[in-house]
UniProtKB/TrEMBL annotation:
It is found in: Membrane. This is Cyclic nucleotide-binding domain-containing protein. The lineage of its organism: Eukaryota, Metazoa, Ecdysozoa, Nematoda, Chromadorea. Its main location: membrane. GO terms for biological process: carnitine metabolic process; fatty acid metabolic process.
Amino acid sequence: EEVRSPLLKEELSVSENVSKVEYGFKRAERLKFDINNEMEAEIERCYNAYKPKIDDLDLATTIFRTFGKGLIKKGKLSPDGFVQMAIQLANFKDQKKFVLTYESASARFYANSRTETLRTASKESCAFVKSMLDPNSNNEERYRLLQIACKNHVNRNRECMVGKGVDRHLFVLYVLSKAISVKSAFLNYFIAQPWLLSTSQAPTLTDQMEEDANADDSWLGAAFGPVAKNGYGICYRFAGNHSICIHISSLKSAENTDSHRFRKHLVESFVEMASLFEGLTESADSRS
């Protein structure tokens, strides 16, 4: 689904010229397998076992084209932080509460490392969301709190990259406690907490295609289901400087979630948040 908004009337000056470089991106090709009767029967069995799970998946996708990371950077904000704060705002509109939020962060400074958990929901993000929904607040205060929340998000991400996150350490302690038969109420409580928002940014394809000119083709995959039965799974990526691609998943059997409803809240939050600094970026452009 394509989403447009009349909010931004001027085009961005960031990467407007489409590169003429030939990229080596190739579309997927169907593979043909030779299978015997036994394998065919097993495939059919697996399909029938998994079909109910597929039917229960509520998936909503969109390519948000009103703006992308180009405008967000003009607002002096982290693009990832901006999207994560929008997810927090959208979820509060959807669920009327703050929830434990997972974002995968790379522990890239360590050999053979994988990920650490970046806990997006914070005191700073909550303060920003509350200000957005407070009729007595003003845009100047909201923008100030958004800057603080995004800066805090960036700092937490840096801590995760250098091994200063908490979740992997606690998980190791939990595994050790089981191995040596030590009971820990704290660790049991930690491991049982549901991630009602599970989020991740997918990598860009800048080395394979010109994303500003091919936003539709840049979103060929990358999505995941909710990790909690009554939660959401949200995968997103920036297609060049002008678009944001989003996958939102939940379970149809969950009574409190609706992926299409959440998408509406998220797109609405993008537009509302950009309006906080749209005038500031226009003023900066007029002075340059």
